[in-house]
Amino acid sequence: MRKPDLMIKDHRVNNNNNKSKLRKGLWSPEEDEKLMRYMLTNGQGCWSDIARNAGLQRCGKSCRLRWINYLRPDLKRGAFSPQEEELIIHLHSILGNRWSQIAARLPGRTDNEIKNFWNSTLKKRFKHNNSTPSPNDSDGSEPRISDHVTGGHVMPMHELDIMNICMETFSSSSTSTMQNYVTGSSQFDPFPMVDHNRYDMTAGAAAGLFNMQPPTQVGGAGEIGFYGQYGILEANNMGLERDLSLPPLESRSVEENNNINARPVDVKSNNNNHFNNGCFNNTDDHQSCFKVENMFGFGNNHAQGESLKMGEWDFEGLMQDLSSFPFLDFQVE
DNA sequence: AAGCGTATCAACCGCCAAGTT
DNA sequence: GAACTTGGCGGTTGATACGCT
């Protein structure tokens, strides 16, 4: 991993009076603690303020990244389940390298995590194996022996410390304060992405926030919410309920896709062109996206090789397609 | 045990869009 | 409307763990 380092070159910071050196590289447990404490006490706000007020010599961006990818309490850790794998493959066939959109549909997973998983594991698997990879295939995503393992839940080295901070913070407040945190009835909600109905108001809730016990994934009596950074898609025990704050899956225009091979890659404006920016990096690979799709038998209703017109995808069909994943506890009407 | 190659993943970089001054 | 700030995203890097010889 990267060594902790000092940086001076953040021009934005250098423009103002704050010329203190900013740290770079790996986060130390102490820094994690500071950020975690600050976030738990003050909630999310302007990231550069957070960095400053939390006493961190980091840029706001770095704090944001650390929080989102590592410290956020609703993160699920450990290997991707076969169901998650399937969903990633499926969503990638639809969305391309729009990792944040894919992550928004995978509870507790970050875009970075999914991106890494795709680039390291799935992409390689497709490359070297033309057959359908079995969901049960064991690969490098298995937890490392050196990781802390708590009841089957893999915890990185100082996640336990972070959890202690959370517990400590909550226990230093009154129970009702904690209840306010968890229910979101206080002035701020430090965990806007957390399904507050999912955790009880005991000290165990903090453990729950850290996923000490992985949430039931399949057929969990509607226990698990389906949430992402854009919102919560929640199915509660009483019935299905959809929060439409989750962004719709985007499709591309016919023109956009038809022109993929015809125009030079514009590095600066290719964000909407996932076939250029990395599904695989050439036109053959562009097709292989669909081959993968076909290989898995997903989306046969829309991915028919070259005859596909992506702009014609209808959202309902797409959602029906997604709802074929049994572990997603929402249904499309 | 040592050396080497590969896999993993945290974190950085650069770009962009939206908001603010 | 230009300049600046901030947040967000995808691509990439590089340190470390791991596995094989």
From TrEMBL:
GO terms, biological process: positive regulation of DNA-templated transcription; regulation of secondary cell wall biogenesis
Pfam families from the UniProt entry: Myb_DNA-binding
UniProt keyword terms in alphabetical order: Activator, DNA-binding, Nucleus, Repeat, Transcription, Transcription regulation
The Myb-like domain, residue ranges: 19-71, 72-122
Single annotated GO MF: sequence-specific DNA binding
Chain intervals for the UniProt region annotation (Disordered): 125-152
Database matches in PROSITE patterns: HTH_MYB (PS51294), MYB_LIKE (PS50090)
Name of the molecule in the record: Transcription factor MYB83
Organism, scientific name: Betula platyphylla (Asian white birch)
